[in-house]
Amino acid sequence: MSVRTGCTVALLGVMALGCSLGGGKDGEDGSSGRDRDNSDDATDTEPAESAAPVWTWTPVEINFDELKKEIDVDEEYAEYLTFEVEDGNSMWAWNYPAYSRSEPYSVYTTDRAGGNGEASDFVIRFTNPVRDFEVWVLGDQVSGPLAKVTVTLEDGSTYEERMVGDGGSSSAERLDLTEYENIVSIEVYDIDDPYTVGLDDFSFEVRGQ
Predict the structure, then answer these.
(1) Which of 6, 48, 66, 109 is 20–30 Å from 194 (CA)?
(2) Mean pLDDT of all residues in the chain?
(3) What's the Cα-to-Cα distance from 206 to each of 79, 167, 181, rounded to whole Å?
């Protein structure tokens, strides 16, 4: 009887000593596993957010006036842009000062140098994304909206605009797309003017690293 009682007392004493020292499964220092997981010293495994790229932008102007003759300019300015014209036509330079904003050259869609303009859909594709784009439209025979314009950005989003004329073939109207950034292409289609429209004095900023 006394032996059993002594064992019981001894066992209780060991348990009490363990509790007083803070021993247990959660940690030898008396802190729980949960406390350690939530401590300020816990390692943060979430990846850091990557910084947004910082681009440089270079202004570009194309007025075609350095050309020496009427030529197909589809690839002439490929450092910055190219033209893709439907119906077997091309974008041709035209040496006709009355139909230019800066003399003597402008461009228009046709099948040959000096040919009558043909209202062919065309796309301007940029070698690198651009912003602050504008161009002057001339040679129009229509007062009001004369063509549809689709602006495509680098992220794939598209925006619809209108090319507008004033019916004065020798006056220039500004197509202003300066609100858009990272433009990769501009499509012009459904041209109402049967002799198409002329374009002159492209200006934009091209993106670089």
Answers:
(1) 66
(2) 82
(3) 10, 32, 10
Q: What average pLDDT does this structure show over 69-93?
A: 97
Task: Give tens-digit pLDDT for 28-61.
Answer: 444 444 444 444 554 555 556 678 788 999 999 9
Higher pLDDT pick, 207 / 52: 207
**Structure-token match 């680098």, residue found:** 154
pLDDT > 80? residue 173: yes
Residue 84 amino acid letter:
E
**152 touches 158 (CB < 8 A):** yes
Q: Quick one: tokens of 78?
A: 């490929």
- pLDDT of amino acid 17: 38
- Residue 77 CA to residue 83 CA, distance in Å, equals 9
HEC string of the chain equals CHHHHHHHHHHHHHHHHHHHHCCCCCCCCCCCHHHHHCCCCCCCCCCCCCCCCCCEEEEEEECCCCCCCCCECCCCCCCCEEEEECCCCEEEEEECHHHCCCCCEEEEEECCCCCCCCCCCEEEEEEEEEEEEEEEEECCCCEEEEEEEEEEECCCCEEEEEEEEECCCCCCEEEEEEEEEEEEEEEEECCCCCCCCEEEEEEEEEEEC
Q: Position of tokens 């091309």?
A: 90
